[in-house]
Fold this protein.
Amino acid sequence: MSERGQERIFAACAPGLEPTLSRELLGLGLDARPVPGGAEADGADATALACLGSRAADAVKVRLWEGPAGGIASARRDLARRFPGVELEARPAGERSTLSADAAGSPLFKRGWRARVGAAPLRESLAAGLLLELGFDGSRPLLDPMCGSGTIAIEAALLAARRAPGLGRSFAFEAWPGHDAARTTAVRDRLAALSRTPPSPVLASDRNGGAVRLAGKNAEAAGVVPFVRIERRDAGDVEPPPGPGDCLVNPPYGIRLDREVEESWKALGSLLSRLPGWTVGVLAGDAAVARMLPGNPARAIEVQNGGIRCRFLVYTP
Ligand SMILES: C[S@@+](CC[C@H](N)C(=O)[O-])C[C@H]1O[C@@H](n2cnc3c(N)ncnc32)[C@H](O)[C@@H]1O
């Protein structure tokens, strides 16, 4: 870390979302590029900006040294003196090596709003990353007709409200020796000043009453109740709000095995045909399910959801 606050970081994300994360870091004012497993970024206060402001990142590592492989032992000794107690991660990169440290300290997807873990919730960072990949910016209505614990709807409301995800948290780097607290406070203030009332509604529903109650509790803990409407409803009966808007949904997986799951996909298919002009993102665990939906996806990307290979299908019905 230099005296002018110029820093180089590596931010990790769900595999498949590297370009999305890189674009998000660019939007935060950093010079970023996708690399396998995440994005590298340079810039003033890169560590604070990524920890406080990135929704798609799961972790942020700050590069404390980069040099020829032969120099790593002395660099380690030097850094151990400057950053006592900070664990260093060594990484060979061809002829060169790097020493980095975990700047966040705990996973960034733990935003602090989840009341209890529902069945198969999406990671907050993955939900946010998929919203960004879909192009959601809060200016159009957002619909999640299979909301489960509400992850997508809550992350959408936070994004639409431009509320930086890390504002209410502290991070490991803030306790490091030599940390410039005034600079981090300035970053916090800058990000906090972006908050707004979302211009469009976020609508979430699920056929399961327990899921709807849990989503409500989570929305309350996240402070987004005024911006989100959560209802108990079958996806096939959802009345879309005046659009066009964005729809992001994470239906149940396991189509080949389960008749009930097949019914869920049929209900989603019937809803899709009532969303002309919308942009619809579907996180599918099985490529075969695409056949249950009307039309072909305009694009598809491979993403990993908790180690499971999934396809993110984007429809423009
Ligand atoms: C994989 S979970 C969604 C998890 C959610 N993204 C989260 O983070 O908690 C799938 C959800 O779809 C709901 N579901 C399945 N079929 C449905 C249908 N026909 N209509 C509405 N909800 C349905 C289930 O009740 C379940 O909550």
In short: Residues 118, 120-122, 145-146, 148-149, 151-152, 206-208, 211, 234-235, 250-252, 264, 267 surround S-adenosylmethionine (CB under 6 Å). Residues 124-161+196-315 form a domain with the Rossmann fold fold (CATH 3.40.50.150). The radius of gyration is 21 Å. The chain has a mean pLDDT of 93.
